[in-house]
Write a structure and sequence with these properties.
Its EC number is 2.7.11.25. Pfam families: Pkinase. It is an enzyme of class 2 (transferase). The structure is a single chain. The protein starts with 17 loop residues before the first helix and ends with a helix. It is α+β, with helices and mostly antiparallel strands. It contains 14 helices and 12 strands. Strand 5 and strand 6 form a beta hairpin. It folds into 3 domains: 168 residues, Phosphorylase Kinase, domain 1 (2-Layer Sandwich), CATH 3.30.200.20; 180 residues, Transferase(Phosphotransferase) domain 1 (Transferase(Phosphotransferase), domain 1), CATH 1.10.510.10; 36 residues, no CATH class.
Length: 450
């Protein structure tokens, strides 16, 4: 039996009717799959079922996770294996099924998709029109433009195997972040943890759409950019700013660690500033432990922020994230990652041996660091993970819970909106950019640099 390459078939229209044409150019198995899909859709419609199901609450997600319950399975879940494109609203389970399918599919099989395909969780702010959510039509993508960048300069931040753009739904005007990941680099883990675990200090995932060989991940937008972008533009942060960011990150880590989840890449570029909070992003290296110790097959993370136990590759747990947070605080204090000022990158292409022999980098703590914060860092950077403090313990530390009267009035961007009104209007008239992201970022700078 001769096998034909579907992509090489050419239509010559010599057949008398559509049935003959269909049979000649389509595998009979494809016809059966298509018919079964249509039948399932009609059944679901007759029974009053809808794909436009609201996402689960956190309590429901936790219960389903513990019970191993699968929501949206069976006839309710769209079968993408039939090659049919389209975008639909769905549950977290629908989204995970979709991304698992993508991660297992050959790139060549997706080259001739007639349209975009995907699952969206955010029914309120993302409008699907007749099964379509078209890039640059239903949703527009732009480079990031941050207030503390030079006026008019565009910035496209890069994450693990992806670039992040600002996105805006053309119907609802909802602004989002959109991370583009080429299909050859896409892994289900890029979506899994961000979809399953919802917390105010974890960037909320809105959905995933495949278009033109790239997976577009839509998520909560950080109007102020990442901590790294702020450091590169404004230099070292002051201690009250560091306290605010640290507390936000610890809350996110406390939640993840309570589910035995290790982020594995806590660093300034993976902490994004919102109007009144900071969130963790980039879960491509994240794992969920099934035992007390996680033994990796390879190194996970970014060298300068790695814990000594992670460098050894003999096993680690959630405490490795706490160490990475400690190194991140040093970066926020000084404007440079630990180690690099004493051991320049030009002379030391790898820091793994230095970390193994000399950790923790207490000598890199800023000279003007308060005694309370220094004590906090010593707890977070404890070389022995057994003695290292947990996220829950550090959240109670006096260093990040100073008396209110000892701190500036501006505890968040929103709290400073009223007093910064004149600054915002002045900047708007100068730069003619009225996006909320720039406004909020302007308030951040006004509030935290007075």
């Amino acid at each position: 039996m001769i096998k034909q390459d579907k992509s090489s078939i050419k239509m010559d229209y010599k057949y008398d009717n559509g049935i003959e044409l269909l049979l000649a150019h389509m595998n009979i198995e494809d016809i059966i799959n298509a018919a079964e899909t249509l039948y399932q859709l009609e059944e679901a419609e007759d029974a009053g079922l809808s794909f436009e199901e609201e996402g689960l609450s956190q309590e429901e997600m936790d219960e389903n996770e513990e019970a191993g319950h699968s929501v949206g399975s069976g006839s309710e879940q769209k079968n993408y294996s039939d090659g049919v494109g389209g975008v639909q609203y769905g549950t977290v389970t629908d989204l995970l099924s979709f991304v698992n399918l993508l991660s297992n599919m050959q790139t060549a099989a997706l080259q001739h998709l007639p349209q975009e395909m995907g699952v969206l969780l955010n029914k309120k702010d993302m409008v699907v029109k007749k099964g379509r959510y078209q890039i640059n039509m239903d949703v527009l993508l732009f480079p990031w433009k941050l207030t503390y960048k030079n006026p008019g300069s565009g910035l496209v931040p890069k994450g693990s195997f992806g670039k992040v753009h600002l996105a805006q739904d053309t119907t609802t005007r909802k602004r989002m972040a959109c991370k583009l990941i080429p299909m050859e680099n896409f892994k289900a883990a890029d979506v899994e943890f961000q979809a399953r675990f919802r917390h105010e200090n974890i960037a909320e995932l809105y959905g995933a759409v495949l278009w033109e060989q790239s997976v577009h991940l839509f998520m909560e937008a950080g109007e102020g950019g990442s901590v790294l972008e702020k450091l590169e533009s404004c230099g070292p942060m002051r201690e009250f700013e560091i306290i605010w960011v640290t507390k936000q990150v610890l809350r996110g880590l406390e939640y993840l660690h309570s589910h035995n989840v290790i982020h594995h890449d806590v660093k300034p570029s993976n902490i994004v500033l919102m109007s009144d909070k900071a969130v963790l992003v980039d879960f491509g290296l994240t794992v969920q432990m099934t035992e007390d110790i996680y033994i990796p097959r390879d190194l996970r993370g970014t060298e300068m922020y790695m814990s000594p136990e992670l460098v050894l590759c003999r096993g680690h747990n959630t405490k490795t994230d706490i160490y990475s947070l400690g190194t991140t605080i040093i970066h926020m204090q000084t404007g440079s990652p630990p180690w690099v000022r004493r051991y320049p990158r030009t002379a030391y292409p790898s820091y793994l041996y230095i970390i193994h022999k000399q950790a923790p980098p207490l000598e890199d703590i800023a000279e003007d660091c308060s005694q309370a914060m220094r004590s906090f860092l010593e707890r977070a950077l404890e070389k022995n993970p057994v003695l290292r403090s947990s996220a829950s313990e550090l959240l109670k530390d006096e260093a990040i819970n100073p008396p209110r009267e000892d701190q500036p009035r501006c505890w968040s961007l929103d709290s400073a909106l009223e007093e910064a009104t004149h600054t915002i209007l002045r900047q708007q008239s100068q730069h003619h950019d009225t996006t909320q992201g720039k406004d909020l970022c302007a308030v951040w700078i006004h509030c935290h640099q007075e």
